C-alpha cells in the first residue's frame, strides 16, 4: 500500500466504432509514448458494459505530468480515433491518496470506477478507508489494483478505480464496499455510484 499523491485522470468516450479496433490503435500508436513519459505509473482502457463507449484511467506521479499526458491523449485521439469516437470525452482529474497492488498483479482484467459525493475532509475518513474498505477489495479473489483519491476540483467528491480479473469479483467487492460505507453515514453520507465498468482491453503498469 502507498500514500503517494499520484494523479488519476479518468476519460469517458462515447463511440460508434468497435472497441477492439480502438484498442489496437491505442496499443500501436498511443501506448508506447505514454509508457515512456516521465512519471507514468499505469494506464487502462475498458469497454463500457452495455456498449456505447470506452473509459480510460491514467495514473501519473504528479499533476504536471498527468496534465501533459491529457493533452497528448486528446490530441492523439482527435488525430487517430475521430472515425471511432464521437465528441470530446468527459474528463475527471483526481489526486490519489492511496493505491494498493496485489502481490501477483496481472493484465487480464475488469475495471470498475466508483464515485462518492458529500465527503468530509480526507484526513477524517482515510484511516477508515485503509482499515475497512481496502481489505474488502484486496481480499477478493482476482484482485489486481486499487486507486483511491479526491476530485481535484470538488473536494467533497471521491473516486475509486479497482481492477480485478473478472466482472463477478469486481461487482462483489463493490457491493461489499457499499454495504460497509452504509454503516458509516457520518463519513459517507451518500451511497457510492458506479460511473463506468467493463472489460479492460488495454493495460500497462510501470
Provide the descriptors you would attach to this structure in a database record.
alpha+beta
H/I helix tally: 4
Radius of gyration: 16 Å
The helix-and-strand class reads alpha+beta
Number of distinct beta strands: 8
Strand order of the biggest β-sheet: 1-3-2-8-5-7-6-4
What percentage of amino acids are in beta strands?
35-45%
Strand count, sense and closure of the main sheet?
8 strands, antiparallel, barrel
Encode the helix/strand succession as letters: EHEEHEEHEEHE
Please, could you describe this protein's structure?
β6 (143-151) and β7 form a beta hairpin. The mean pLDDT is 90. This protein has 206 residues and is α+β, with helices and mostly antiparallel strands. 33% of the residues lie in helices and 38% in strands. The protein is globular and about 45 Å long. The longest helix is centred in the first third of the chain and has 18 residues, at 19-36. An eight-stranded antiparallel barrel has the order 1-3-2-8-5-7-6-4, surrounded by four helices. α1 crosses α2 (63-80) and α3 (122-138) runs antiparallel to α4 (167-182).
